[in-house]
Specification:
Layout lengths: L11 H9 L6 H4 L12 E9 L2 E2 L4 E5 L5 E5 L5 E7 L2 E8 L6 E2 L12 E3 L4 E8 L4 E8 L10 E5 L10 E3 L5 E7 L2 E8 L7 E2 L12 E3 L4 E2 L4 E2 L6 E8 L10 E6 L6 E4 L5 E7 L2 E9 L4 H6 L6 E9 L4 E6 L1 E2 L1 E9 L14 E5 L6 E3 L6 E6 L2 E2 L1 E5 L6 E7 L2 E2 L6 E2 L6 E9 L4 E7 L10 E6 L13 E3 L6 E5 L4 E8 L10 H7 L4 E5 L4 E3 L2 E2 L3
Parallel strand pairs: 1-9, 10-17, 10-18, 19-25, 27-36, 37-43, 37-44
Antiparallel strand pairs: 1-2, 1-5, 3-4, 3-6, 6-7, 6-8, 10-13, 11-12, 11-14, 14-15, 14-16, 19-22, 20-21, 20-23, 23-24, 24-26, 27-30, 28-29, 28-32, 31-35, 33-34, 33-36, 37-40, 38-39, 38-41, 41-42
Helix pairs in contact: 1-4
């Protein structure tokens, strides 16, 4: 599922000004309303859930401690809620309800990080206001080609320019009416998928996504009359031949055809002559993939290498039959081993329980099996892939992924047959927990929490969008922030008022933060501390 489209992106020209502007309200206004009186029942958090119309009943509130312990409650008829018997800790609080956008306490928008609530022993934090916003709504009517209502038709949403389905859908009723609620603001493609008898159709009634009209949705508003009609489209055939590197026909190869619309995938297997034909193809843009597993004759003839052979092609198909020749190539190799640094935790006895993942940005990663001796290898298709690693026991983190003197966590590998394989990779896990913490304060030592603390390396060569060295956190209500798991190194740390997590990892924006930053050294397994000052 895609995240809702993000708005209000930070501009480089305004960052310097934002850093010198006072935060909204005085220090007293920044603190949540509270009564410091202690009770024998422990600390308490209470407040009310509201929207622009008034109190919201039946909203689910989830309180999470710093140790990930969750407690839930539901707002009453007047929107009131409360959590009692709490111990001293730092808590996050979020609220959700059908057709509303989930939001954390202190967040300006639903998809932003909220503000943690710092609670002392016996402290009473009262009068919190959790303001919710109803999501946007898209509604309309879908009809068949003969003008009758298209009942029982699935309606999906997609984000223009991104693959896959957004994740919220509906089905038309007997009158062909659909309604999708709880949407974040942004642009959406609306797709109708009848059970049979028609192809997927995008609003306003087209089958090619490039011709579709996106629907702009605003929070707490309804877009109605998004009506369109299903169409019958002439189908055609994609035929062709799959050959090996020597140009010889490849038998037993699976060929899949993926329409740009995301629906209607079909697969066939090549015959002894390497030929294939996929029927009932609708006009439009298609991706054709050919995959030969190790068990196929062409793969066995190539070498005992377990990597698959593959080929791909992009095609714009009209109503006329189309043909293509696909030449198989070997996947790139990704291979290495895992190791654990000596520490206080016991090293996993069974290394096959260690999980290693590769994935293209924006797509679900795939897992690579680790052998009992800690080695691993896998074939990877072309493209940039991020590396992730998980140890079976809590407390371990993937510290580095080194290959040829380069940390692949900072610089994800881009696989391409012309570049060669990526081998000799050493994935190192460590139980030494690095931490950078501090407080954001005004000149007169009042805590500030209506901001975001950003940390990034001093070395611009490490300013890569996938690097774990670029991170951020929101201060708690007492102004304290914590950044955990940073790799050792020299960092710049700065508080930022207007922060957009979707757009800040660019050299232009990071350079604009330097004048307001403080430098700090983070050492492996140690806790560094730094306080930041910001104008009222």
């Amino acid at each position: 599922m895609h995240s809702p489209p993000r708005r209000h992106r930070l501009r480089a020209a305004t960052i310097a000004a934002l850093l010198t502007l006072p935060l909204a309200g005085s220090a007293a206004q920044q603190r949540p309303p509270r009564d410091a009186g202690a009770t024998s029942g422990g600390a308490r958090i209470s407040g009310v859930v509201v929207d622009r119309r008034g109190p919201v009943a039946g909203a689910t509130l989830t309180l999470m401690s710093s140790t990930w312990r969750q407690t839930t409650t539901v707002s009453d008829a007047e929107g009131r809620f409360g959590f009692a018997g709490l111990g001293p800790d730092v808590y996050s609080l979020k609220v959700s309800k059908d057709e509303y956008l989930e939001i954390e306490y202190g967040a300006a928008r639903s998809y932003e990080m909220g503000t943690a609530i710092a609670i002392a022993a016996g402290q009473q934090v009262t009068g919190l206001s959790m303001r919710m916003v109803r999501g946007g709504v898209i509604t309309g009517t879908v009809r068949r080609a003969d003008g009758e209502p298209a009942a029982a038709t699935a309606i999906d949403l997609a984000t223009p320019g991104l693959p896959g389905i957004y994740g919220r859908g509906a089905s038309t009723n007997a009158e062909g009416v659909y309604r999708i609620a709880g949407l974040g603001g942004g642009q959406y493609h609306v797709i109708a998928r009848a059970p049979r008898g028609s192809v997927p159709v995008l609003y306003p009634g087209v089958i090619d996504p490039l011709l579709a009209t996106s629907v702009r949705v605003e929070e707490d508003k309804e877009r109605d009359h998004i009506d369109f009609t299903l169409v019958s489209a002439p189908t055609t055939i994609i035929a062709g031949t799959v050959v090996d590197a020597a140009g010889q026909p490849a038998a037993g190869v699976q060929v899949g055809v993926y329409p740009r619309s995301g629906s209607g995938y079909q697969a066939v297997t090549t015959g002894a002559d390497g030929r294939f034909a996929v029927e009932n193809i609708q006009p439009g843009h298609h991706t054709i993939h050919a995959t030969a597993g190790a068990e196929t004759a062409v793969a066995r003839a190539a070498s005992p290498d377990p990597r698959r052979l593959w080929a791909t092609a992009e095609m714009d198909v009209s109503a006329e039959p189309a043909s293509v020749t696909l030449t198989l190539q070997r996947e790139s190799m990704f291979a290495g081993r895992v190791q654990f640094e000596p520490g206080t935790l016991q090293t996993p006895g069974d290394l096959t329980t260690v999980r290693v993942f590769l994935g293209k940005p924006g797509f679900h990663p795939f897992e690579i099996k680790v052998r009992p001796d800690g080695t691993f290898e896998a074939g990877v298709r072309a493209g940039l892939h991020e590396i992730e690693g998980q140890a079976p026991a809590a407390g371990w983190r993937l510290k580095s992924a080194m290959a040829a003197g380069r940390d692949l966590l900072d610089h994800p590998p881009e696989f391409d047959p012309a570049r060669g394989d990526v081998t000799g990779v050493v994935l190192t896990f460590s139980d030494r927990q690095t931490q950078l913490s501090g407080r954001v304060l005004t000149a007169d030592d009042a805590p500030v929490y209506q901001c975001t603390v950003v940390a990034f390396p001093v070395d611009p060569e490490r300013w890569t969008p996938f690097s774990p060295r670029l991170t951020y956190a929101r201060p708690a209500t007492d102004g304290r922030f914590v950044l955990r798991g940073l790799p050792a190194g020299q960092y710049l740390v700065a508080p930022v008022r207007d922060f957009d997590r979707a757009s800040w990892k660019t050299p232009e924006l990071l350079r604009a933060l330097i004048p307001a930053s403080r430098q700090v050294a983070v050492r492996e397994g140690e806790r560094a501390q730094i306080d930041l000052r910001i104008a009222r």
